Amino acid sequence: MDKAFQGEHLLPGHLGQFFVILSFGGALLSTLSYYFATTNKDLADNSWQRLGRWGFIINALSIVGVGVCLFYILYNHYFEYHYAWSYTSVNLPVYYLVSGFWNGQEGGFLLWTFWQGVLGMILIWKAKSWEKPVMTVMAFSQLWLASMLLGIEIFGAKIGSSPFLLLRKAMADAPIFSQPNYLSFIKDGQGMNPLLQNYWMVIHPPTLFLGLASVVVPFSYAVAGLWQRKYKEWVVPAIPYALFACMILGTGVVMGSLWAYESLNFGGFWAWDPVENASIFPWLILVGGLHVLIVYKNSGHSYFTAVFLVLASFILVLYQSFLARSGILGDTSVHSFVDNGLFWHLVAFVLVFLGLALYLIISRYKEMPISKKDEETYSREFWMFVGAIFLGLSCLHLILVTSIPVWNRTFGTKLAPPIDLVEHYNIIQASFAMVITVLTGFTQFLKYKKTDTARFFISTLVYLLVAVLITVPVDYFSGLYKLHFVFQLVMLGSVYSLLVNGKVLIDALKGKFKLAGSAVAHIGFGLMLAGAIIAAGTRGLVSVNESGTVAIAGFDKSSQGNKISGDSHENMMIYKNEPVKMGPYMVTYVGDSTSEPDHFYKIDYRRFDDKGKMIESFELKPKVQLNDKMGMTSSPDTKHYLTHDLYTHVTALPQPKEAPTADAQAAAAHGDANDDKNYDPPIPHEIAIGDTIRFREGYMVLRALKKETAIQNIPMTDSDVAIGAKIDIVSNNKNYSAEPVYMIRGKSVFDFSRTVDDVGLKLRLTRIIPEKNKVEITVYQQPENKKPWVVMRALDFPFINLLWSGTLIMIFGFLLSIFRRNKEIKPV
User: Fold this and answer.
1) How far apart are CA 605 and CA 620, in angstroms?
2) What is the pLDDT of residues 759-784, one digit of tens each?
3) What residue spans define the domains of the chain?
4) 3-state DSSP call for residue 122?
5) CA-to-CA distance for 102 and 66, rounded, in angstroms?
6) CATH topology (fold) of 674-786
């Protein structure tokens, strides 16, 4: 019985589970009601439609209720719930607790169904005559998503996974749960993966899931059109939603790239990880489907292709969710969730909607409005169709290679991916990108149905020649000429697309404004590709290690000479306060600071001209977390310039020292600590105020003697005497200060040392010499082989801002197109 366990907070979980079941019931009611409303022949009877609306509203409000209950559990750190214990901890700030919503499988489904609920509410308001059939499909999708959160078993089959599962039920075999007071032993949760503790975790998943959820809207219109045999009418209202889905999903994918670039340490923005690949499956197909929808609207051609691609885009949303969440990519992707029992549930989700799409395509194929006249070769619709086909082929290639684990499990094969997987993807996908960029250019010279071929060839060849004249020096000065020839062709296609679409944009600004959206989006896409090719292809190594090895010093003898993991040619060991020449910079590791749970390492960069004058100085602070589960996780820090980025991250550190005991700390305060062995033999200096002591990396000056010095945590009496020596220290052009203390209490003498870790010094005021008007300062200095150090890697990404600015421009182009297409919808 639950009452036997002490301290549990069961009410929010029970309430949350009630809302989960209510959301499922609301979606079921809405699906059935909208279905009967659609098939009801009595057009005057709106009772089923009203019931469908109420069912969907109940579903949407219940989803909000689930979210409120889950946040309440996360915010209050109720670790009796498996979800809270698995993904949060007491030291997480509130904004990371919010991101804890979507940190796990259940939270991802909750976010997905929330956005789909928002879109459904908009459609109830905006869909007009399309509401009944479109909302039938929307509600049916909500029904499946709601089932993913149920967390119940029927005849031994698991249906969904609840975010309100109790920890003692998820781990029932653990001995701790045999004790009624088990919560008294659970003081904290496992916490969030350190790599996810980033502001991108707060904004990237909601954007990506909104994009994935929005793909269902054009899918619903396509299903509704086929179902109701209104083959043409659905196209116009579906286009703005397809534009929106392309815009948001594309934004979410690029946000993921920016997150990887700013927060992960693989040194780039795209790693061809299987889950990364899966995220662009639906985007590629829907972009192709969107263009073919526009072709059909303007020319009446390619209806079947348009329907097929729009339907396939949502099927691929479901398939990418299966890949990411079923555990099937667990051995090939760092982003994949483990299988939590939803494998066959996810398979069924895909198959049900795939079956629905195939049934409608096959049963309605003969009735579809197929054009009997072939497209003209020199027409815009023909080449837009070709472009959509190449987008589809690009996606097909990604699906085939990414799905190798699926093929092996399904057919019992042992297929292996290409040996150099990244190079394989780069070459083949760059080939598709080259064709697509060229098509986004010369199709702008074509007209629908018929084009003046002579004028077309003249315009195309002129712009192509100019593009070649621009691309050749770009390839040379950027270094692209050293890469595979296909990357140079991608740059040529990008430049050509930028030139042609730039002309179209100028024409649009002169009066043909309706053409602006596509031109701006294509310009953004061209800039994205150009930036990605240059930044990734000509990425420069700043931390060149001429020796080719990195021997990790500072450990015990058994560890001496070990090499760090990774390419030692790209990593350099830097001792604290010892400047090292690194590319055009003098680089110094100057110190570190801690803001739990993050540890920041301060790397000082300075650049000098030929005359030795410093022309630039800045500090980067790459971040490290030492995590019990994941070991050391490192996040880079980047200096952003207009034309390039300097990227720095820590790749290795000394082994962490054990915290000193209380006795050792007390001994250190009196200057007789056991840590003296970490320093060279001490050197005493008799000096007066104003005198200088020199040491290996600088010098120090005794500025004053302070007679009424307070000592922390030691109360002073009237008979006590405490003198502090105020010492200024200069090392490697940086200033530090220290104040060792000499204390007389009764007949006893004490001295309190002070350490300056950034310089590797410990100072003691060991004697007062009144007859000479001097004092004795004893200096301890760490030997060079025991200095703090870091191993770091620094990279230079040229013109990467083209990638990010191109994304923003493409988004703006999609927005312009959405506004234009919305105006074409006639109220019904």
Assistant:
1) 8
2) 888 999 999 998 888 999 999 988 76
3) 1-192, 193-368, 539-547+567-654+789-828, 674-786
4) helix
5) 13
6) Tick-borne Encephalitis virus Glycoprotein; domain 1 (2.60.98)
